[in-house]
Amino acid sequence: MTLPTPLTGVVPPVCTPLTPDREVDVPSLLRLVDHLVTGGVHGLFVLGTTSEVAFLTDAQRRLVVETVAGHVGGQLPVLAGVIDMTTARVLDHVRAVAAARADAVVVTAPFYTSTHPAEIARHYRVVAAGSPVPVIAYDLPSGVHSKLPGDVVLDLAAEGVLAGLKDSSGDLAGFRTVVSGARTRPDISGFSVLTGSELIIDAALAVGADGAVPGLANVDPEGYVRLDRLCRAGDWDAARAEQERLCTLFGMVRVGDPARMGGSSSALGAFKAALHLRGVIACPATAEPQVPLSEAEVEQVGKFLAGAGLL
After folding, report:
1. DSSP summary character for residue 200
2. CB 79 within 8 A of CB 43
């Protein structure tokens, strides 16, 4: 498949269902993909943060891409994260996911050591030169400890190095700058600007975003597709009401006790617990060393689902 230019709509970062012994649960992954496709999503993003990419082995990463790309059979674009610390390691992942039939790769800035904007730009140029599929930048300051400068992103877009941006920084002002630049610079065309922030999708679409990559769409794909449709129709009152319903549902990510687990364990555990309660996946296990939710915390997830009419 050739990526639409720009890529638009709802592109969930697909959770990676695991068995109790932490292997990829392929039957559950296929059910999850069917759940998302039936919900009307416009693309799939595997091996992102919500996919627990940082916790998966290389073999597990490839299995996920092969499973999803093979199952959708070109019906929807499949984006694959190739997240790693250095350019050489990223290129290894690029070759693997491209061979597994991913339609594009999603790439963060290098991390572990501090990185200068010039080095970030060089990283993307080298990756793009070695990639047989389009490259989408992933702005994830919480994970890689550097913010992608808007001017660097736009210059790389103008060079044809980047096909798009997934912005999970939560910086709506900075996001707006990139959206505006992508629309007004005559040397940029077909560049996709997607928000990864579940709670401000109506605002992001209002300022000109092409689409969204919300982790919560694993749980409620229909809700995010409805939100996208309402925004595109200009029904901003109904869109605001739907966004607020989704914001309430998003409260499930905080059910985990912060005295015994981190935010990732709580959020990913909640998404998987919700998918398990909805009968989509067989097991809500998260990857080690994340801490599982307690029975009482899972009950709280169920209350969020019931309140949203999903259980």
Report:
1. G
2. yes
CA separation, residue 215 to residues 2, 152, 271 (Å): 24, 26, 8
Check residue 108 and report its DSSP letter.
P
DSSP state of 216: G
Catalytic site includes residue 224: no
Instruction: Point out the catalytic residue in the list 8, 16, 49, 286.
Output: 49
Q: How far, in Å, CA of 271 to CA of 6, rounded?
A: 29
Q: Active site residue: 57, 86, 112, 248, which one? A: 112
Report mean pLDDT in 10-residue bins for the chain, 311 residues: 84 98 98 98 98 97 98 94 97 97 97 92 98 97 91 97 96 94 96 96 96 98 98 98 98 98 97 98 97 98 97 90
Among the listed residues 50, 67, 108, 166, the single catalytic one is 166
Catalytic residue flag (residue 272): no
pTM of the model: 0.96
Residues 272/284, Cβ–Cβ less than 8 Å: yes
Q: Cα separation of 274 and 269, whole Å?
A: 8
In tens, the pLDDT along 20-73 reads 999 999 999 999 999 999 999 999 999 999 999 999 999 999 999 999 999 998
Query: Is 112 assigned a catalytic role?
Result: yes
Q: Has 303 been annotated as catalytic?
A: no
**Measured CA distances, 246 to 51, 70, 199, 297 (Å):** 20, 31, 8, 19
